[in-house]
């Protein structure tokens, strides 16, 4: 069995839990409160910078030129998405650059970024790829689900449409393929670490959306 097939099957309940979170339900039906969505966008901007750094670490760890190009291009794409937030969606939804800069990462965002960076520095490449895969894959599947349920008059339609495109889907498929290839060369112990990292990242995906909906901040 391919690693990706096995990992998705093992973590299907986590995906379903994320898909049915209040944040994603309300985003799909257009009832999500604007302050909640703003909070989410700010945290997403913080996260994307860290995710790009994690992808850059994958490029540095790889010894295959094609994979170096793939990971470096994905890192650049993550930064471009972060810039688009500033130039388009932040303005559209009433956020200033100063407000974004003044808002620190929440515990969930901070934890997720630190997990990915620690993975990049400490773990073998295969394990690091497994840690990053849920961000690609779960986001695509939930994005498709929301896109399929959202009406044309949804106030967040422009945002929703950005995650339903074929370009992003191709990037996800490429990440799945390279992770499966790495898993095929890994030993049993390393594959066990890959599964643990995939699950932890899937949990953090859930936490990120849940945290945004609750407007969770540092307790002290």
Automatic annotation (TrEMBL):
CDD domains, alphabetized: TenA_C-like
InterPro entries: Haem_Oase-like_multi-hlx, Thiaminase-2/PQQC, Thiamine_Salvage_TenA
Residue ranges of every copy of the Thiaminase-2/PQQC domain listed in the record: 23-213
Top-level taxon in the UniProt lineage: Bacteria
Pfam families, per database record: TENA_THI-4
Organism: Methylobacterium crusticola
Protein's recorded name: Aminopyrimidine aminohydrolase
